[in-house]
Amino acid sequence: MPCSMRTLSAIVHAFADNLLIRAADVVLKERRRLVLVPRETLLHAGHCKMLYEACLMGAIVFPPVSAFYTRPASVADIIDNTVSRVLDLYGIDTGITRRWPDLRRAPGDVGGEEIEVD
């Protein structure tokens, strides 16, 4: 994390010329979970095609998109949320990300009245 377009291209085309690409190749071959977090924007059609092909091969594409519904108070909160959501895909609960039922409460509230989330 992050995954460059060069690395994505090597993964999609099975060009395993280094340990990172070889490991991704083996993960896909063994039908294990491979999460790719692309770093580039803007994307052109070639990038989108490679992301699509990676999905067809079994990879999970996770763009690092900010989740503003969690009401982050800092850039660190946004980064923590993204990292924790990626780790969730591997079954690792960091305890950082508030779960959906917890989002009905204002940040810092332990109990009390529920609030509406937009």
The CATH topology of the largest domain corresponds to: Rossmann fold
Query: What is the element string, with H for helices and E for strands?
Result: HHEHEH
Which CATH class of the largest domain?
Alpha Beta
Look at the structure and name the CATH superfamily of the largest domain. Flavin prenyltransferase-like
Strands side by side in the biggest sheet: 1-2
The helix-and-strand class reads: mainly alpha
- The domain tally reads 2
Average pLDDT, rounded to a whole number, is 85
Please outline the helices and strands.
Blueprint: H1 5-12, H2 19-29, E1 35-36, H3 45-57, E2 60-61, H4 75-88
How would you describe this structure to a colleague?
By secondary structure, the chain is mainly alpha-helical. It folds into two domains: 64 residues, 3-Layer(aba) Sandwich (Rossmann fold), CATH 3.40.50.1950; 53 residues, no CATH class. It is built from four helices and two strands. Helix 1 crosses helix 3. The relative contact order is 0.13.
